[in-house]
Amino acid sequence: MAVTVETLDKLERKITLSLPVGTIQNEVESRLKRLARTVKMDGFRPGKVPMNVVAQRYGYSVQYEVMNDKVGEAFAVAANEANLRVAGQPRISEKEGAPEGQLQFDAVFEVYPEVKIKDLSSAQIERVSSQVTDEAIDKTVEILRKQRRSFAQRAMDAAAQDGDRATIDFEGKIDGEPFAGGKAEDFQFLIGDGQMLKEFEEAVRGMKSGESKTFPLNFPADYHGKDVAGKQADFLVTVKKIEAAHLPEVNEAFAKSLGIAESSVESLRADIRKNLERELKFRLISRNKNAVMDALVAQAELDIPKASVQSELERLVEGARADLKQRGVKDADKAPIPEDLFRPQAEKRVRLGLVVAELVRSNALEAKPDQIKAHIEELAASYEKPEDVVRWYTGDRRRMAEVEAVVIENNVTDFVLSKAKVNEKALGFDELMGQS
Predict the structure, then answer these.
(1) Which of 20, 86, 282, 301 is most enclosed, with most CB atoms within 10 A?
(2) pLDDT confidence of 435, banded at 50, 70, 90?
């Protein structure tokens, strides 16, 4: 039977569905009979409730259920016959004036767009590269040393300096009044580490154990504590103890403390290089992939379905609520989060998803089993027991789907780079790793 599809907008379509009243009534009666075999009601034995009583109690809900099922089935058949790729759920409304013995419904819905991708050879993409340097390894060694530093108390007349750990009492007031979070006892911080505001560190730097000082401090306008942001406070600080930091020497004992099998400095540096190179590789992949995806979208022409954007908006808002809940925000599930905050992001995601899907379909860029396996093994390689990590991925469909999506994106990235005009750019290790 031919299906008539009416075009309402660029992607919006309408189909009229017809259902015989008899088909609906027969299915309702059939379901009520099945229900009567098991339904329980006061005053009747199970399975002995009269049909008219069952129909009176459950008839409306069963009728609603049957209508939904039959309309859904009819829509699926019609959309399939018309070779339509439906985006989102249809809006169903009953029509008046249907022929006798028929029920008619209008199904209004969107279809996925035709995606046109221009010649990729005209796209220009900047591909960055970088290398792990000895300087980067030296910096990592210093970080590891700081993580394992010890502290020894300085003499009472020793002045606090950068790198020292200060133990202090402090109290701040604004207009002579204490404020929340402005007081602490036996508080420790590392001078010069950026843990405290610059003015606070400058005030403590040079003080000696037992000394007290009052000084003004201006909170930045963008300070995370909104109650004090942009205000000036007066702080009284008393230094109770100054401790000098002692960093461990870089030797075999230090390497052994880090779990290096051969316990040598050379092995330690080799292990650091291996880890940095792995991290660098993933950072380069991410950076270059983003550049490719931006170029790919710029080369594509398509309309985006409103239904798909709405679904993505709902996911983003739900994710924001989950994040608030994780941070301990009260009633996070009821927090007013305007969808428009996420609309540009949602539209970008939907557009990119449609373009990538078209490129994958038209160029056979699906993830191959050996690619998925290799990617999981690479992810697991940095862990102590890689085989456990491999099982963690392969034992969960959702995780495997996430890996498959990453592999597909990598295939798309490689394909586009093979076609486009690529401008190579070398970045320093710190420059690349410092970028988000």
Answers:
(1) 86
(2) low
